[in-house]
Design goal:
The protein folds into three domains: 72-146 and 345-447 and 468-513, 3-Layer(aba) Sandwich (Rossmann fold), CATH 3.40.50.740; 149-336 and 541-561, Dimethylsulfoxide Reductase, domain 2 (3-Layer(aba) Sandwich); 581-704, Beta Barrel (Barwin-like endoglucanases). α10 (228-241) packs parallel to α15, α13 crosses α14 (280-292) and α19 (379-385) crosses α21 (408-415). With 711 residues, the chain is an alpha/beta fold. The radius of gyration is 25 Å and the shape is globular. The longest helix is centred in the first third of the chain and has 19 residues, at 88-106. It contains 28 helices and 27 strands. β18 and β19 (459-463) form a beta hairpin. It has a six-stranded mixed sheet with strand order 5-4-17-16-15-6, covered by helices on one side. Strands 22-26-23-25-24-27 form a six-stranded mixed barrel. Strands 10-9-8-12-13 form a five-stranded parallel sheet. It binds ligand MGD (2 copies) and molybdenum atom. Residues 19, 146 line the site of molybdenum atom. Molybdenum atom binds at residues 19, 146.
């Protein structure tokens, strides 16, 4: 931290840590150790001096009345909110005594670290997800709630998620934003899109909900939820049939294009129209425009992959740029994620070398050689049903599972278990922290050191602390190192502080990482990956894709080996008219619950000004569905399915078609009517590939709350 002169105002170059592709460079203004405000760093070409609504008044979050400032021990009933302050030493001792007892009786797998991306820092996320837990042989967490379905589907085609440079979209003539809500979730991409539009590009949005992004589009297309694979394969079919494909690219740089073309042939415009609800002529028009208004690019979202067949959907859409040979040309290609371009030294972060076997930790008879893995999307069932051993302790950090995980009623029941020892390391007294036995206070990013990659651009950011930790809060890495020491682990890894870990992570042979040093990051705040040019065009002729063949795998032997069809296909969503007619007859409406504009998952949902902007927990319903149910705008409605029930305020709106509903995520249960947010309705079912979440494949019924319904 800089050593300021008392009474003077100064600035610190730092970065936003939140789970967002934009990973902004920030200038923090500080006086006497207090944060006065933040602004986007004007020198970073992608941040361009702008911050989103959520982060623009970050001081509201840093100094929120919900901040946890001291270690707290539960004194009343679980969830009653009665706490006693105690010291860090007492807290660490108690945790370790309980854990040692659990390991002795149940084995180390009875302990589960549960985390996601509260901070995306490589130190306080990546390193904290490996190291200690490897050494403890705890159960492993499959971190699947967000991106693994998409990564797996995309990976079968391209090997790794190395999308095109977002700054190159200004050079596109045709941009499809597909299942992404850029104007809310990737706000720094919108000025780039607008600039492309000024230069003549057509901007298309494909989304069952007419989002803010769709309002900025030249052409908006609303498919039935979960049917996009059919649309993509249908577009490919039109392109092949009209001879608009790039045969040279297909021959030289793909695998299996003939088999792929034959597969697409069954996706005629009429069949696709029937599946997607989009007119056949519009499908043809879209395919022709995509293949002829060159260069054309697709911005693909993760949101669309949170459907029962999300992996197959992403896989099908991802083939399109190869069909028209869009790769390797400025303004062309596809961007799902840029993350695999950041080649940090991941072994130095995760430290797989620290792994021991559960058998090394205790002599319990059910111990395996390798710890089991628990899918975070099924944490409700895992807490309630798993045996040999049951989960006896959960250590939660960087996440708020009570609010964000699907099938909330089950999750909450699991977290309420009397015999569960629940420790939550948090900044805020969240729905999850409120159920804990011990709450440990966490620093905000402005109070600790870290380094960030991005999944939406090509800049590395250093998060330099701007202010001292509030209260007794500590960074994740410091807490986990302290726990390791208290457990008696003597490995030198646990003596590494954030700076040592960052320096180790920067040791990389990748040409893209050359010249990125800790010292330079300290001076400049951010450094662009060492690309040949700006904007950067990856995968030019002569540069391999990351698949085994080095080509785009339209026919995937890897998929076949994993038990999937080697060619992409369309599958009806599990909960839908075609996927489960019986269920659809009882629950005729498909609920989508994607990102809210003013919240970030459940982060920021406790900040007064943002809560005011988001108004109240709401659900958008079509005029037809409302009329049939005598629902008027603003009315409280009951929304339910076999998993549970919530009360929401209805918005009668033609932004959704009949049979579709939209409710932005995520309010805290604490702030929701009857203490239940939309995740009471979502299911623990996982995607076809990658074990991902299915937040958008959930059928519901709706009725005016004043009417008594039989359920
Ligand atoms: N303001 C804000 N920003 C965020 C977040 C947030 O919560 N709030 N979350 C952050 C995180 S963790 C992530 S992963 C990213 C997510 O960023 P996005 O990928 O943009 O995610 P979502 O908004 O969840 O979903 C995108 C869109 O997919 C649409 N969709 C759902 N089902 C389908 C379908 O079957 N077909 C099509 N075509 N579209 C579908 C939804 O209606 C939604 O508008 O955003 C990050 N940024
Ligand atoms: N219905 C529905 N549910 C969803 C989604 C959806 O679209 N619809 N989106 C899903 C997606 S894409 C995702 S990624 C998940 C996100 O799930 P989570 O990663 O759990 O996301 P957040 O709700 O942002 O909770 C992060 C928590 O980490 C805390 N935190 C922040 N920084 C730190 C730190 O440095 N240390 C510690 N110890 N804690 C910290 C924050 O205070 C916050 O409470 O939610 C999923 N849930
Ligand atoms: Mo996410």
């Amino acid at each position: 931290m800089p050593d300021p002169v008392a009474g003077s105002e100064y600035t610190v170059l730092t970065a936003c840590p939140h789970d967002c592709p934009d990973a902004c460079s920030i200038v923090a203004r500080v006086k006497d150790g207090r944060l006065l405000g933040v602004a986007g760093n004007p020198l970073n070409p992608y941040t361009a001096g702008n911050l989103c609504r959520k982060v623009a008044h970050y001081e509201e979050r840093v100094y929120s009345p919900d901040r946890v400032l001291y270690p707290l021990k539960r004194v009343g009933a679980r969830g009653a909110g009665e706490w006693r302050r105690f010291t860090w030493d007492e807290a660490l001792n108690e945790i370790v005594l309980r854990w040692q007892e659990i390991i002795r009786r149940y084995g180390s797998e009875a302990i589960l670290p549960y985390s996601y991306a509260g901070t995306m820092g490589l130190v306080n996320m990546d390193a904290c997800t490996g190291r200690l837990w490897n050494r403890m042989a705890s159960s492993r967490l499959a971190r699947t709630i967000c991106s693994t379905a998409a990564q797996t589907g995309y990976g079968y085609v391209y090997g790794a998620s190395g999308g095109v440079d977002p700054e190159d979209f200004v050079n596109s003539q045709f941009i499809i934003c597909w299942g992404a809500n850029l104007a809310s979730t990737t706000v720094h991409m919108m000025p780039i899109v607008r600039e492309a539009q000024r230069r003549g590009a057509t901007f298309v949005v494909i989304d069952p909900f007419r989002t803010r992004t769709a309002n900025a589009a030249d052409w908006y297309i609303a498919p039935r939820p979960g049917t996009d694979a059919a649309l993509a394969l249908g577009m490919a079919n039109v392109i092949f049939a009209k001879g608009l494909h790039d045969e040279a690219f297909l021959r030289e740089r793909t695998v299996g294009w003939i088999e792929f073309r034959d597969r697409c042939a069954s996706f005629t415009p009429d069949r696709v129209a029937d599946i997607t609800g989009i007119a056949a002529e519009e499908i043809v028009k879209l395919a022709v425009a995509y293949a002829t208004q060159l260069p054309s690019a697709i911005r693909l979202g993760y949101g669309i992959s949170r459907t029962s067949h999300g992996g197959s959907i992403i896989r099908a859409i991802s083939t399109l740029p190869a069909v028209i040979g869009a790769w390797g040309h400025s303004g062309g290609g596809l961007l799902l994620s840029t993350s695999s371009h950041f080649k940090f030294n991941s072994a130095e972060l995760w430290r797989p070398d620290l792994r021991v076997s559960p058998q090394d930790m205790s002599a319990v008879h059910w111990n395996r050689d390798t710890p089991r893995t628990i899918n975070m999307n099924q944490i409700g069932d895992a807490l309630l049903d798993l045996q040999d051993p049951p989960i006896m302790s959960m250590f939660v950090f960087n996440s708020n599972p009570a609010a964000v995980a699907p099938d909330s009623a089950r999750v909450r029941k699991g977290l309420m278990r009397d015999d569960l020892f629940l420790v939550v390391h948090e900044q805020m007294m969240t729905d999850t922290a409120n159920l804990a036995d011990i709450v440990l206070p966490a620093t905000s990013q402005l109070e600790c050191l870290d380094i960030m990659r991005s999944y939406g651009h090509l800049y590395v950011n250093l998060c330099t602390p701007a202010i001292p930790p509030l209260g007794e809060s500590r960074a994740n890495i410091d807490v986990q190192n302290a726990l390791a020491h208290a457990m008696g682990f003597t490995d030198s890894a646990f003596d590494q502080d954030a700076e040592a870990i960052i320096r180790a992570a920067l040791q990389s042979d990748s040409p893209l990482m050359q010249g990125i040093t800790y010292e330079r990051l300290q001076m400049e705040g951010f450094v662009r990956l060492n690309t040949e040019e700006t904007p950067w065009v990856p995968y030019k002729a002569g540069h391999d894709f990351a698949t085994k063949s080095g080509r785009v795998e339209l026919y995937s032997a890897a998929a076949e080996k994993d038990g999937y069809d080697p060619l992409p296909d369309y599958y009806p969503p599990a909960e839908s008219r075609d996927g489960d007619p019986e269920l659809a007859s009882r629950y005729p409406i498909n609920l989508l619950s994607p990102a809210a504009h003013h919240f970030l998952n459940s982060t920021f949902s406790n900040i007064d000004s943002l809560r005011k902007s988001e108004r109240e927990p709401r659900i958008w319903l079509s005029p037809k569905d409302c009329e049939e149910r005598s629902i008027e705008d603003g009315m409280s409605v009951r929304v339910w399915n076999d998993r549970g029930e919530v009360i929401l305020a209805a918005v009668v709106s033609d932004r959704v078609k009949p049979g579709v509903a939209w409710s932005p995520s995520l309010w805290w249960h604490r702030d929701s009517p009857h203490g239940a947010n939309v995740n009471v309705l979502t299911s623990q079912r996982v995607t076809d590939m990658g074990g991902g979440s299915t937040f958008h494949t959930n059928l519901i019924q709706v009725a005016a709350a004043t009417h008594v319904m039989d359920s």
